[in-house]
Amino acid sequence: MFDSFLESTGILFLGSSLFGPVSIPNIAIPIIGTLIGMFFGILPGVSGVTGMALLIPFTFSWTLIPTILLFGSIYGGGTYCGSITAILINIPGTAPNAATCLDGYPMARMGEAKTALGASAAASAMGAAFGVFVLIAMLPVMRATVLAFGPAEFFMLAVLGLTVIAVVSEGNLIKGMAAGGVGLLLAFIGRDPVTGALRFTFGTLYLQDGIRLVPLFLGMFAVTEMINLAASRRKTISGREHVEELTGSLWEGVLSVFRYFGLFIRSSILGTVIGMIPGIGGTVASFVAYGHAVQSTKDNQRFGKGDIRGVIAPEACNDAKDGGSLVPVLAFGIPGSEGAALVLVAMLLHGLIPGRELMTTNLHLAFLLIWALFISNQLTSIIGVMIINQVVRFTVIRTQLLVPFIFILAVVGAYAERTAMGDVLLTFVFGVLGYLMKKHAYPRVSLVIALILGELFEVNFRQAMRLHEFGRLDFFDRPIFLGLVLFTLLSVVYPFYQSLRARKGIGVKQSPAGKM
Amino acid sequence: METRYPLIQITGRSLFSFLALLFVLLLLWLSTGYPPRARYVPQLVAYFTIICLLLQVILDSSPRLSALYGSVERAELFKSEPAGENQSGDGPPDLRQEITAYLWLAGLLAGLVLFGFLISIPCYILFYLRTQARLPWLNATLYGIGTFLFTYLLFVTLFEIRLYPGFLLETLLDF
User: Fold this and answer.
1) Complete DSSP assignment for chain B
2) Which B residues, 122 through 151, put their C-beta within 8 Å of a C-beta on chain A?
3) So where are chain B's domains?
4) pLDDT in tens, A421-479
5) Distance CA A208, CA B42 (A)
6) Any chain B CB within 8 A of the CB of A419?
C-alpha cells in the first residue's frame, strides 16, 4: 500500500498531455480543478456538480490520471465556497452550506463577516484533512472486504445502494421509490447483458447501447438547473444586486477553531461517518453537526444569533464528509451523492472500474483521487479567504447572461462524446425531465443512482440465482451477505420510523435546505 | 380550525405522476414480448414502480388523502432553493418565463438539427442575449462571435470533432 502511495505522489510531479502536444505538470490540474469547483460552488443554484457534468466531454481525449485529478479536485473544490455566500448574503452556494447560514449570516450582520469566513475556512480545511486521513486508514479494510465479495454480495450491495433512494427522498418516500424504479427501468434499455435480447429500444438503433451517462448527467444537472434559473424570477444568480464591504478579523476566526477543538473533532467524526453511508449527504451531515453543537454546549443561547460554533461545526462536518463519501465509491462503485456519482462516471468513462481492480492493481489511482481531494480541500480554503472580495462578485452575475452559455456547453459536450445527434436530443429530454421532476418534488438523484446501479443489480442477481440453482451458493452460509441483508433492512425501515416520528412531532427536524 | 381539503383536484403534479405511470405501463407491456429470462427483472421492477406511481397519483389528485398521509407541503415545489430569508426574489416559477425557457430550448434544438452547430450557436447566443438579457446589439454580436470562435477552436481544431452541419446543409451538399 505504501508503494502505491509513493507511486501516486510521484505521478503528481510528472506531466500529462491534455490538448495536443502541450504537456502540463499533473500538480497543476488539481489547482485548475479547485478554481473551477470554487467558481461553480459560489454560484447559488449552480453547484460543482454542474461544473463536473459540463467538463466530462472535455476530458474524453485525456488519459485517466489528469481526469481523476480534475474530478477529484472539483468535487472537493466546491464545498467550502458555498459557505462564503451563506455567510455574506444568507444564500448557501450549495445545499449543505445552509446550516452555516444560521449563525454565519447573523455574524456578518454584526460586522464579523471576516471572523465567520476565517472560522469556516479553517474548519473546512482541517475537517477535510481529517476525512482524507480516515479514508486512507480505511483502504486496507476496504481492500480485504472487496476481495471477499461474490455475486450474492454484489447484488445485495446494489440493493443496499438502491435503498439510498429511501434516504435521499426524505419526506417524499413514494416519489423517491418511483423515481428509482423508473431509473432502474431506464437502466434496462438496450441489450440484455445475459441473453442478448433487445429491451425497450422502441425499434431504434440509438437505444441499443442503452442510456449514455454523459447526456443523462448533462441534462439532469446542467440543463435542468439552467431551465430552473431561466424560469425563476431572479435577476441575478443570488437575487442580490450589490456586494457589501466586509469587516471582522480573519485570524480570530481561524484561531476559534482551535479554541473549540473538541467540537471540531466531534463534528469531523460525524461528517466522516455520515459520508461513508451512501445517500445521507452533506445537507443532513451539516445539520446533524449543527444540532450536535447546540445540544452539547451549555451556553447555547447565542446559537442562531451569531455564535461562531454554529459555523465551525457544520463546515468541519461538511468537508470531512467528502473523504468518507469516497469509501463506497472506491470500494464498490456505489455513489451516495450526485458529486460522487460524477466522480464515478468520469472513472468509468475512462475504463477504470472501482472495486476489486481499483483496490489491488490500480491502488495508486485511488491514492491519486485522494491526493486531488486533499489538495483541493486545502487550496479552496486558502484561495477562498484570499479572494473573498473578488469571488463574491460572481453572485451578482445576471441570470440571463449565464443561461445560454451553459445550454451551449451542455449540447456541444453531449455531442462531442460520440458525435451523435441522438445524444443531444437525449440531453434535452433529460433536461426537461429533470426540471419537471424538480418542480414536482421527485428526487432526481434517486433516478440517477438507480440508473447507475441497474446493471450491477440485474447481472449479479441473475448470477447469484443461477449459482444457487446449481447448488453452488448457499445464501445462509455467507456472513457478509447476511450482514448486508440486515443493513439493507435497517436502512429501509429507518426512514419509515423517522417519518412516523416526524408525523407524531417527536422532534425530528426537517432540514431547511432541501433536496435535489 | 382544521383545514378541509377537496377530495379530488387535478393539478400539474398529479398529471406528471400520471404520465410517469403511463410510461411505466408502456414499458411493462413492451416487456411481455421479451424472452422469459430477459423480462423477469424488468417486470419485477415495473410492478413495484407501478404500485408506487399509482399511490402517488392518488395522493397527488386528492388533497384530502394527501393531508391524511401528511404530505401536503405547499412549499414543497422548490425545496432545493436556499434556506434563510427569501431575499432572492424567488417564488413559484413564472409560467410565462417557464414556457419561454422551453421555447428557447426547443429553438436551439431545431436550429442545431436544421442549420448545424456552427451556425446555430452564435445565432442562438446573439438572439438570446439581445432579447432575454437585453444586451445592446453590438455586445450580443461580440458574445456570439466569441462563442463561435471558442466552439470552433476547441472542438473542431483541437479535438478534431466534425460538428454536425445541419440537415439543410447536408441536403444541399448531397446535391
Assistant:
1) ------S----HHHHHHHHHHHHHHHHHHHHTTS-HHHHHHHHHHHHHHHHHHHHHHHHHH-HHHHHHHT---GGGTTTTS--SS--S---SPPHHHHHHHHHHHHHHHHHHHHH-HHHHHHHHHHHHHHHTS---HHHHHHHHHHHHHHHIIIIIIIS-------HHHHHHHH-
2) 124-125, 128-129, 132-135, 147, 151
3) 12-76, 95-174
4) 999 999 999 999 999 998 888 888 788 878 878 887 888 888 888 887 777 767 777 78
5) 16
6) yes
Please answer whether residues A87 and A243 qualify as being in contact, where contact means their C-beta atoms are separated by less than 8 angstroms.
Answer: no
A220 touches A430 (CB < 8 A): yes
Q: Are A438 and A228 in contact (CB under 8 A)?
A: yes
CA distance B78 to A515: 9
**Cell matching residue A159:** 440493493
Q: Which grid coordinates belong to A12?
A: 503528481
pTM summary value: 0.74
Q: How far is A245 from chain B (nearest CA, A)?
A: 18
Instruction: Specify the amino acid at residue A331.
Output: A
Out of A91, A398, A441, the one facing B77 most closely (by C-beta) is: A441
ipTM exceeding the 0.95 mark: no
pLDDT tens digits, B61-96 = 877 766 666 554 443 433 433 333 333 444 566 788
CA B144 to chain A, closest CA, distance in angstroms equals 10
Nearest to A313 by CA among A103, A57, A67: A103
Where do we find the cell 442562531?
Answer: A304
C-alpha cell at A139: 483502504
**Who among A91, A95, A421 is closest to B113 (CB)?**
A421
Counting residues of chain A whose pLDDT is more than 70, the rounded percentage is 84
Residue B123 has a pLDDT of: 95
Give pLDDT tens digits for A319-330.
888 887 888 788
Q: What amino acid occupies position A122?
A: A
CA B75/CA B92 separation, integer angstroms: 9
Taking contacts as CB-CB distances below 8 angstroms, the residues of chain A near B88 are: 44, 91, 234, 238-240
β-bridge pairing A198-199 and A23-25: unpaired
Say how many residues make up chain B.
175
